[in-house]
Each structure stands twice: as C-alpha cells, then as structure tokens.
Amino acid sequence: MIHFVLLISRQGKVRLTKWYSPYTQKERSKVIRELSGVILSRAPKLCNFVEWRGHKVVYKRYASLYFCMCIDDEDNELEVLEMIHHFVEILDRYFGSVCELDLIFNFHKAYYILDELLIAGELQESSKKTVARLIAAQDSLVESAKEEASSLSNIIAQATK
Amino acid sequence: MNPFSSGTRLRDMIRAIRASKTAAEERAVVRKECAAIRASINENDQDYRHRNMAKLMFIHMLGYPTHFGQMECLKLIASPGFPEKRIGYLGLMLLLDERQEVLMLVTNSLKQDLNHTNQYIVGLALCALGNICSAEMARDLAPEVERLLQFRDPNIRKKAALCSIRIIKKVPDLAENFINPATSLLREKHHGVLITGVQLCTDLCKTSTEALEHIRKKSTDGLVRTLRDLANSPYSPEYDIAGITDPFLHIRLLKLLRVLGEGDADASDSMNDILAQVATKTESNKVAGNAILYECVQTIMSIEDNGGLRVLAINILGRFLSNRDNNIRYVALNMLMKAVTADAQAVQRHRATILECVKDLDASIRKRALELVYVLVNETNVKQLVKELVDYLEVSDLDFRGDLTTKICSIVAKFSPEKIWYIDQMLKVLSEAGNFVKDEEWYALIVVISNASELHGYTVRALYRAFQTSAEQETLVRVTVWCIGEYGDMLVNNVGMLDIEDPITVTESDAVDVVEIAIKRHASDLTTKSMALVALLKLSSRFPSCSERVGEIIVQFKGNLVLELQQRAIEFNSIIAKHQNIRPTLVERMPVLDEATFIGRRAGSLPGAASTATAPSVSLPNGVAKPAAPLVDLLDLSSDDTPAPSSSGGDFLQDLLGVDLSPASQQSGTGQASKSGTDVLLDLLSIGSPSVPSSSSTVDILSSNTSNKTPISPLDDLSPLSLSSRATSNAGPMMDLLGGISPSPLTENNGPVYPSITAFESSSLRLTFNLTKQPGNPQTTVIQATFTNLSSNTYTDFVFQAAVPKFLQLHLDPASSNTLPAAGNGSITQSLRVTNSQHGKKSLVMRIRIAYKINGKDTLEEGQISNFPRDL
To answer: Where would I find the AP complex mu/sigma subunit domain in this sequence (chain A) (predicted)?
Structure first.
C-alpha cells in the first residue's frame, strides 16, 4: 500500500501531503525533512526509487515539483511510477496544463482529486475520465449551493430593506 | 453577509504568505491569520467557517500548529450542506489522525452520512473513513460499509471496497463478514469496482485463510478469464496507457493470482497459459508494459513450479538487467534477489552484469546489486567476486564504503578457502578502508592470525608493508601493532618466509618505529594507544637492543592525561626497570586464541559481549582477584607450562596490584578510574585466577579500556603539575611493594566497599557520591553526597533535589548547609538513602536538579546519574 503521498517543490516547500499510515505531527515533519534532503539532492538520470527506513519511496519530477509516494518493500515500483503519472495527467486535465501556482492557490482541489484517486493507500480508479467527471459533478454541487446561498441572502436583503 | 466580520480571503492570505521575504515575516502573517480565525471560531461564525478551514489547512501544510481548528472540522461535517461537508471531511483527514480522541466524536456524523440520500456525501464519508478510521470506528461502522458494497452506483461500491480494506486491516476479525460481498465484486465489469474488488480480495486472502480457500475455489477461473479478456481487449481510449488497456488492473489481477497460486498446484496450473501469454505478448518499451512484466515475473516465481515459465521469467529479468533505463535495472536486481532461492543457477549466469551494477553511479542500484552479489557468492566464485569487490573498494564513494566493507568482510570470513587468502583479503580491506572495518571483524582477523602459526611471519611482514602506505587507517594500525608486539622477532629475522614473498630488511628499530608512530599519532584513539603500549612492553623484551629506547617512549606516557595510559606506562616502566628477571615470562607470546569460542561469542551477542566483559572488573572493588568468567588472560601466567619464576613474580605483582584501598580512597576523585585501571592490569596478568581459556582476550582488553574512558574526566581539569605529582604519589606505594621487601599476604575482601563516583560535574559544580552499604541490608545504599563549588562565586540558597524510578525508594537527609563557598573552599554534604527493590537485577539510576543563587540570580542545573556501580 501507499503510506503517504508528498509533493515537494525544488526549494523543499511542501505543496501537498497525504498520510495513509499513522504518523504523528512530529514524525511527519521529520519524514518530510529527511526525504526532501534525500530526493532533492539526487542527480537527474538516476533511478526514481529511494530505499528509506525499510520502505521505498518512488518519486518523479515534473517541472519544479517532485511527486513522491512511499510504498512497501514488496510493492511494484514501476506501477507506482505510472500511478504518479496518472495523477499528474488528471491534474493537468483539470487545471489545464497545471503549474505549481495552481497547486498552491487551489491546493484543496488537488486534495479532492487525490481523494478520488486513492483511498486507504490503494488505487481507486484507473479512468481519468471518471475521476474528472466525479470532480466536476461535486464542483457543480458546490457552485449551485453557493448560488442558492447568495440568492437567498439577496432575498433577505430585499426583504429587510 | 456581514462585511466586517471576515478577515482576508484565502487567496489573499496565500499571497501575503508568499510575499513574505523572511521566515519571521511569514510567521507574523500566519500569527495574525490564526488570531483572526480563533476569534471567528469563538464567535461561532457560520459564514466563514468554510473559508477558515481552508486557511487552516494551508497553514497546517506550512507546519504550524492548527489543533484549535479540529472542532471546526466536526462542526462543518455536521452541517447539512455538501460544500461544508466536503471541506470539513478534507480538514478532518488533514488536521487529524487516527490516534486523536476527537476523532471518536465524528463516528455518529459518519454513520449518518453513510446513510445519506446524496451519493456524493456518502462518497465523502467513505473516503474519510477509509483514510483515517481507527479500530473502534471500524468496528462501529463495518455494517454500513458492508451494505454499501452492494450500492447501486459503482463509484460508491469502489470506495466501499477500499474502505473495507482499511477496516479489515484495523480489525482482522471482521474479515469473514466481507468474504462474500468481496467475491461478488470480482464479477463486475466496471474497472474501478474491479480494481478495488481485486485489491480487497488480495488483502482478505492475506488476513484470513478461510477467505483464501473460498476465493481460490470460487474465483480462480473467473479471474483468469478476466485477465485474458483484458489482455486481448481491443483499444479502449478511456483505459489505454501506452497501448495497453488498464495496466493497473492487469497488475492487480496478477497480484491476486499470485496469492491464489502460491502453494496450490491446481490453481497454479489453471493460470499457466495466461501467465505465459502476458509474459510473451506484453510490449516492453514503456513503463506500463514493464510494470506488468515485472508483476508477471513475480507471480511466475511465486506460484507452484513450472519449468518453462520460470525460464521465460528469468529471461525477462535478463533483458531488464541489460536495459538502459535505471528503473528497469533496479527492479530486475530486486526481482533476481527473490529468484535466487528458486533458481540460483539461472541467476548466476547474470553475475557479471550484476557485478557491474555494484559500480553504478546510482546509490539505490549499487545497494541492491551488492546485496544480490552477497547472496550469489559461493565457494567456487568467491575468489573472483571478492577480487572485483576489493578492486572497486579503492574507487568507491565514501558513503558506500561502509556497506561494501562490511559485506566483503562477511564474505571472506564465510567462504575463505584458505587462511592465507583470508588474511590477504582482509589486509587489502584494512589498508583501503580500515576506518570502516567494525571491531568484531578485525578481532576475527586477529584470531585467525593467531591460529595460523605458519603464517605469523608472513602476516607481520605484510602488515609492516601495508603500514608504510596506509598508516591513516585506524584498524590497520591496531592489527599491525598487535602483530608486531607478538611476532616482532619474525619480522626482523624473516622467519617463516614463504616462496611468494619478497624478502625485506627490517631492523629492530624499524619495528619499534612503527609502534612509536602509532602511539604518538594524534589521530590514534585510546584503544590503539593502549595496544601500542602493550606492544612496546613486549618489544622491550624481544629486542634487547631497543630496550632502552622503548623504556624512554614508555616513560613519556607516565604523564599522559589519560589515566589508563598513565597507569600502564608507570606499571610497564617498573617492569622494565626493576624486574628484568620476570619480564621475558610476562611478555611471552599469546597462546593461540580459540576460534570456536570467538565464533560462539560473536554469534551470541556482540554488544552483550562487551558489557559482560566489563562487569567483573567493576565488581572487583579493590582489585582482589576473583574467578570471573571472561577474565582477560593475556599473559597467562598461571598456565601449566609457565616456568617457576613466574610464581614469585606473581606474588610481587599481586601486591602491586592489590595496592589496597588506602591510596585510592584518599584520592576520591580518581578513585574509580584508578581502580578499574588496576583491575585491567590484574586481569591482564591474570594472577591467582584459575587459568581460563584465553579465547577472546583482545575483546576483553579493549572493552575494559573503553569502560575506563568515561570516569577519568576529573583528571582532565587538574593542572598538569598536580597530575604528575599525583601520578608519583600513586606510583609510590607500588614501587615499594615492587621492591619486594615484605610481600604481605593478600588481604581478603571484607564487606562491600564501593569506589566513590563523580555523579555530576559541570563547569561550576561538582558532585561526588561516597557509597556504602549497611551490613545485612544489601538493598539499601547510603550515599554521602559532597558538593564542591568550582567557580569563584559563592552560591547561596543551595537546594539539591533528586528523583528515582519506581523500583527505587529515596530518602534525603537535610544538607549540612545551604551556602557553598567559592572555589572549593569548603563543601556541602548531604546524605541520601536509596533502597533498591530490584537489587541484583537493576542498577541505580537517578535524576538530579540543583538550584542555587549566584549574586541573587537563580541558577538551575539538572542531570542524570547512571554511572553507579552495577551491583548496588
């Protein structure tokens, strides 16, 4: 299973963290510190796997962002690499050629997408289209709720004038 | 909406944080935001709860504390609207983890949402449950999840399946409830449901054998069919990755088939065809295809044997191994490691390629390859492989050298065909990477050298040569010094020359040079220096012509700041100066070290070996010999073949070492150190003790050395002058006794007496403990604590506090004063009584706190005392 997902920028800033195994806050910041040290310092053409504390971390760099997933020793590293790519493609499709700024200002959207892709550290959906459809449906639910709220407040405002 | 109640928008906050130029600026922004959010929380503001939560999550990601927002998540989740719930659940998963008790409060909301009419809300609840549920929640909500496995919408079914995985991982007892619904998911067509269903079944099979039997019986054929359909399916754009339809599903199916096929010939048989098809037909030019091949190979290697398939699998790995892509090579090495047990011969064929991978640029690949090589070594290829590895050692990275050295040492020790080869390889390793060689590895080398009597001359000459080029490698220096001490005469006289050797001319003084360099080198640590000192003593007898020079070197160490060296130097000096007649017997060559015992010890517990060895020397309070098991028997005086003079010499030495308590207890500061130093020598000479097989003497000597390192600190801050005077006063009585005027009979140990210890010391304060026991009450220790002021200020309002763990009881008597005069002009004493309810099992330990005022200013010092003698 996937123990955690990390997105780290080249400067070592955390852009997204998702923990599927229990880690205390202290452990989390330690993990992030250690791993960003290891991963950011690796030369470009080396393999995308790092062995770390009995687990493996599969990482891949997209522009200025490193996508990292920590998996068990017996898991399929190549598949996880493909999974990272899958996630990136969905993000790309959702934001329209995604960049780091999208993930900073709309970090919650990135989390929503990840939640449609992974649960309990396992892959949930292999179709990019399905994920996009589910996110769009939920976004529109939020939008309509917002509209309703604003029209409601308008009515109240009208009434109390 | 009230325009005055809000703070900034989320976007503005993120901008402000990003615009901060310094960390302090960023902290200020975050602090301001947090204050606003707290205020808003206190007002129970509904309108901005949503936005506040988003801000909190961002702040949390930056690493700031956000616990005050946890209850807000619960409130959002409990509110009726979808947008609130969506952000509330996200906050729950981000800000909390399964160990927080707050989480229990959400169980009820989750239960309601799992039964909600809006399927997206059900989805949110399932997602949260799957990501963070605890065992209690799993138990409470399992029935709901089980029901949702049959929900009409497939997107809920797939979420429920993954949620079930979390539940059975938390509470394995619940697994059987899920067997039937999980099995029916395997017949689905929807890929999401199929992927999650297969994954759930895999996890079920791992937790329950009942599930494994059931699924194997009911679903193996169905799964094989699904995989065949998938592999043969036409192009489908929705699931296509690099020309393959849904590689994720491929991999999960292969994984489940592996679990089902393991240990079951029938099931394995039914999947042979499809495995062969996947292994041969899958495109291997993209990551996705290779991921499937990799999984397929893993399945072939795990299921019941099928010769043809295995060959196919190993060939795939061979192809992987020669791939240019580092990732592929990495997984190939990883897989070959597992294949070794199944088919070692086939893996051996790739040995050369694997050996190349040990030298790869990539640390991950190197590590895998080294482990694989380690498994591949056997009697026939050991010479060739070790040669390659040793050659590579010379050019390897520093951070890889430690691993590599350990593996080489382990390989040569395990498979060495002959002793000379083992010694040669170890010498190469020592000269290349001696600083990475672990203690037990060079101990083992010394044991082997000692056993190879025909190679003594050869070894000492080889070491001498290696020392000339690699004197910076600490362990090489140690082994060289030891061998020169033991076999120095063979070095000089070219004794036991082998045909392969070039003759060298080494004079006696050249040999002494080596030891002198070792002992005077700044980088040498205490162990090396101690070994060198012993070697010098031995050489003084082996090389009469250099005896005077050796004496001079030893004399230089009489004033050494390290007590251990100082004391030995004094003792060795008196042996050289006054006891010419017994010296040759004292410094005889070590008896052959017993390999079997050493190996046994090594296998036992290495760190344990050191601690048991130190124990007896501590428990010999006044240096009286006691037959303790791992006694050091370096010189082995009492063994049968010792000539007569030794016994009289022994008497003198016994007195020398029995020095008795008076000088030592007068100097309370140095007490323990000097005594244990004496013990070491006593042990070293092993007088009056029954001869113990001298299996591991080096180990013991060294461990007692290291145990002496700590207590010598009080000496460090004395001036050199007082040190040397103390040294002479220390040596005084020994000289007298050595003079041998009246060798008094050995006084027996009358009741437990413990050395006083320096319990605590800082730059301004020293605390020493005098330990006594009341007769007839071994559990209770009376401690007389003495505080000494090391600074030039008077301390007032001096208070000492102590705390002990539960198995101890502590009673503090009032202190003699609460004012401590400056610069050691007086002291405070206070007595403590400690009762150890676990006497004999646990040793004392204490935490202390000392508070006092310097010129009216409060000062606090704290510390832990764990250097109590062990048997208190």
So the answer is: 1-140
Closest CA to A122 of A88, A85, A78, A72: A72
Give the count of Cβ contacts less than 8 A between chain A and B. 161
Q: Using a CB-CB distance cutoff of 8 angstroms, which residues of chain A are in contact with residue B192?
A: 124-127, 130
Same domain, residue pair B531 and B608: no
CB B45 within 8 A of CB B38: no
- Same domain? For B680 and B776 the reply is no
DSSP B548-597: HHHHHHHHHGGG-SSHHHHHHHHHHHHHHHH-TTTHHHHTPPPPPP-HHH
Domain match, B601 and B700 both: yes
Verify that B553 and B643 share a domain, yes or no.
no
So what's the pLDDT on residue B553?
85
Q: Which of A31-45, B239-253, B364-378 is predicted with the least confidence, judged by mean pLDDT?
A: B364-378
Q: Are B697 and B634 in contact (CB under 8 A)?
A: yes
Residues B724 and B766 in one domain: no
Answer yes or no: do A119 and B58 touch at CB < 8 A: no
Domain co-membership, B527 together with B639:
no
Greater confidence, B717 or A125?
Answer: A125
Query: Which of A47, A77, A113 should be substituted to probe chain B, the one whose Cβ sees the most B Cβ atoms within 10 Å?
Result: A47
Say yes or no: B712 and B828 in one domain: no
Given a cut of 80, is residue B233 above it in pLDDT? Answer: yes
Instruction: Tell me whether residue B8 is exposed, middle or buried, using C-beta atoms within 10 angstroms of its C-beta: 0 to 12, 13 to 18, 19 or more.
Output: middle
Domain contains B367: no
Please tell me the class of the A2-160 domain. Answer: alpha beta
* CA-atom Rg of chain B in angstroms: 37
Interface contact B63-A49, CB threshold 8 A: no
Contact between A47 and B329 using a beta-carbon 8 Å cutoff: yes
Integer-rounded Cα Rg, in Å, for chain A is 19
Nearest to A108 among B54, B163, B255 (CB): B54
pLDDT score recorded for residue B700: 40
Tell which of B239, B364, B365 to mutate to test the A interface (max A CBs under 10 Å): B364
Q: Is A151 on the interface with B (CB under 8 A)?
A: no
Q: Which domain holds residue B790?
A: 757-865
Pick the closest to residue B656 from B630, B688, B632, B702 (CA basis).
Answer: B688
Q: What is the DSSP string of B593-624?
A: P-HHHHHHHHHH-HHHHHHHHHHHHHT-TT--
- In the listed set B504, B534, B559, which residue is the last one of a domain according to the structure? B559
Interface of A with B in 79-138 (CB under 8 A): 79, 81-83, 85-86, 104-105, 107-108, 111-112, 115, 119-120, 122-130, 134, 137-138
CA dist B713 and B709 (Å) reads: 8
Domain ranges within chain A, ordered by starting residue: 2-160
Q: What is the CATH number of the domain that holds B845?
A: 2.60.40.1230
B428: tokens are 């190469």
The answer to whether residue B443 sits within a structural domain is yes
Number of domains in chain B: 3
Both B708 and B792 in one domain: the answer is: no
For B520-552, the pLDDT digits (tens) are 877 778 888 888 888 888 888 888 788 788 888
Q: What totals of helices (H) and strands (E) does chain A contain, helices first?
A: 5, 7
- Examine residue B77 and state whether it is found in any structural domain, yes or no: no
Per DSSP, helices labelled H in B359-473 are 363-376, 382-395, 398-415, 419-433, 439-451, 456-469
